[in-house]
Amino acid sequence: MPPEAAPPTAGLAGPDRAAPAIVLDGLVRRRGERVVLREVSVIVPAGATVALLGPNGAGKSTLLRVLAGLMRPMGGVCRVLGHELPDGRHDLRGRVGYLAHEPMLYRDLTVRENLAHRARLLRVADPAGRVRELLEATDLVRRADFPVHALSRGLTQRTTAAATLLSDPELLLLDEPLANLDPSASARLGALLGPRPAVPAPASPGAGPAARPARTRVIAGHDPEAALAESDIVVGLRDGAVTLLATPDTVGPDQIAALYA
Amino acid sequence: MSTPPAPRGAWTGDVRALLALEWRRERRAPQVLPTMVLFSIGVFVLFRFGLQDGRVDGPLAAGVLLVTTLLAALLGIGRLWAAEEDEGGLDAFRLTPASASALVAAKALALWSFLLVLHLVAVPAFAFLLLRDGLDVGALPTVAGALVLCDLGIAVTGALVGSIAAAARSRELLVPLMAVPLLIPLIALASEALSPVLTSPQDVVEGRWWTALALYDGVFLLVSWAVSDGIVED
Amino acid sequence: MPYARRILPLTAVTIAIVLAWIVVSAAVVPTDATEGVRQKLTYLHPAFAIITLIAFVAGAFFAWQHLKHDRPIDDLRSYVAIHQAQNFCLIALITGGIWGRAAWGVWWDWGEPVLVTFLIIFLLYATYQPMRFAIEDPERQARTASVFAVSAGIFAPVCFGVVRLTTNLLHPQPLDDPASNLPGTAGLAFGLSVLALGALFVTLWHLEIVHKSTRIRVRQLQRKVEGEDAVPVVARASSPVTL
Predict the structure, then answer these.
(1) Of A20, A39, B88, C155, which residue is the least packed, with the fewest Cβ within 10 Å?
(2) Which of B28, B91, B96 sits opposite A108 (nearest CB)?
(3) Is there a domain that residue A246 lies in?
(4) Each residue of A207-228: pLDDT tens digit?
């Protein structure tokens, strides 16, 4: 790919154009003989929120898995947080949080054990402290010692969200994150998984909170209104191809209808 | 292979955490160990009747003990990767910086430890139920040595076979199909190492069987390590 | 597609070697006084066994390449090598039985390490297709099959060593024994048999690779003409590769 051939960014004038979080150019992924993602090209600036829309089977979950480094791209360019996939996928580990449909939790273990184990493998600095912090943030303290199989779907979803946030990832890939949640849990989790600006390095060491990059988010879902409300970029997938790429203020209801038609 | 350099001791730390997880899950919901123990004792009783109230010694004794171990191990191998596959633990693992070989090593160590615990119960039961002259105390180190090496081979091969079978729909059917041929040479070697001490009067085990057993274990350790990325990666 | 271009010359070479082999073993090598024509079967079994073992190891090599570089063509190479080797393995077992009958009067002999090893290897590789086609995701299927092929390919020679160690070598191993008093022409016939079956294997391997990739290409074109959903996906196949 010639480096000058910049893929479209929906005209977004982000401050971080120089260091985009995600660069996709002609990304292809097949499943056997079938093409699941065909030539997907998108640039996502660091700190932006992408709403990923499309009917069932359009390739949303596959795209999220590719971005998480769980599936290899089979063609085109796929650069995530500055690392070329698939070769750089090991460097992404711990920097990307992926909230999938499946809970990805051990059902016989308790909420706390699941989180502590994951934190340990993610090499979180203070695993016990971080787990406690997230249990409080997700309002799971009272259920912390329940085995996962005894939890309702909503509570399981909250546990999964806590597990996703353990390493405080820079890139969040969320597959219908607020499914199965009641309104109060939905609001709480929505805030927890919400956007977060970058914190610049303090003037002198120890003078303030440590520097951290802005949080980039890709959210797949079926609720166009909610998605438009919280996103900076809207990507519509249909049969594995990008058919809609725009900023939310320019997306009309007819475009959404066409996507799902 | 393509895993980035990890902090020193991270690999062993990961293996320890993953092994602890296996044992914690087994303690929380005991499945594999009780099944293997009960199955083994059931098979010993079965042999008692199948051999018409006969007692065994020599190669026959070694064969009965080892084949029973292998069959019991098949039950454990089938369950070894089930949680990763059914509960999505594999995806969760792949999002962490821990290396694939650490997971495979932890699985093999878990199965090895299960098999060793199994033998703590099964060998006395075997000596009591089936062995013609009981087990001599002097023979214990040899029996233990042969079983430790045999169990290691079963564990490493089992971790590999279990991971292959876990990806498939018919997991329970594939495990015995693949594991039995792969373990025939191991059982043959372990039988050669065991049968002299199960004979009365006892015989001396030839050194080459120990070497061969250790070599077999070593080869499969290398294979598992080499293909571990292929097992865990997508 | 170089694979297709190589088929014609390969076939010609294979035919030439096979003819030479038949002529040498039928006309040049003296017929054994006691065994008669049956003795000529001696040249079949070891050759099949040798090619089978090499083919399984080659399958493991391609599978290793597949795991390392993630190219679907390597999966196809490994798949076809194993598939052909399975057929060769079966023939090695059958000719081995015939050989045993000719040499020692028994169809099966547990003291013969080559035969016993090939039975074990055959049992192991017989699970390759059931294992492979029980995995639904095609990419995972290919990768898991490669893990299996690498493990089994390393296992095959190890198994031979162990079986050889644990069986009592009661029978003469005429072709391994340098002091054997076989006539020199018999050695030539044996060498030719290995060469002929090796050439046959390579030709068949090319043929199946080209056949499989052509089938995929046809389906691709059919999809283009009739639409994406007109052609159902084949579930029982290697990685879809068009050369």
Answers:
(1) A39
(2) B28
(3) yes
(4) 666 777 889 999 998 888 888 8
The CATH number of the domain where A27 resides is what? 3.40.50.300
Total domains present in chain B: 1
Question: From CA A45, how far away is CA A49, in angstroms rounded?
Answer: 9
Asked if residue B1 belongs to a domain, the reply is no
Q: What percent of chain A is predicted at pLDDT more than 70?
A: 90
SS3 content of chain C, % helix, strand, coil (to 5): 75, 0, 20
Number of domains in chain A: 1
Q: Using N-to-C axis directions, what is the helix angle for B171-198 and B207-232, rounded to 10°?
A: 160
* Residue whose C-alpha is closest to residue A67's, from A185, A173, A193: A173
Say what the pLDDT of residue A17 is.
Answer: 46
Per-residue pLDDT reduced to its tens digit, C119-169: 999 999 999 999 999 998 888 999 999 999 999 999 999 998 888 888 765
Q: What is the DSSP letter of C40?
A: G
CA distance B101 to B226: 8
* Inside any domain, residue B23: yes
Q: Who among B3, B7, B93 is closest to A121 (CB)?
A: B93
Strand runs labelled E in A19-67: 22-31, 34-44, 49-53
Residue B2, domain member (yes or no): no
- Closest by CA to B232, choosing from C125, C67, A173, is C67
Q: What's the pLDDT at A4?
A: 42
Token pair for C73: 């063509």
- pLDDT, mean of residues B137-160: 94
pLDDT band of A255, cuts 50, 70, 90 = confident
Put simply, the chain B residues between 136 and 195 with a CB less than 8 A from any chain C CB are 160, 163-165, 167-170, 173-174, 177-178, 180-182, 184-185, 188-189, 192
The reported pLDDT for the residue numbered C165 is: 85
Contact: B226, C150; criterion CB under 8 Å: yes
Q: Tell me, what's the pLDDT at C131? A: 93
B223 touches chain C (CB under 8 A): yes
B92 in a domain, yes or no?
A: yes
pTM metric for this prediction? 0.90
CB contact under 8 A, B234 and A70: yes
| ∠ Cα B56 B60 B63 (to 5°) | 120
Radius of gyration of chain C (CA): 21
What residues of C are in contact with residue B101 (Cβ under 8 Å)? none
Question: How far is it, in rounded angstroms, from Cα B61 to Cα C74?
Answer: 46
Range of the domain at A255: 22-95+169-199+212-260
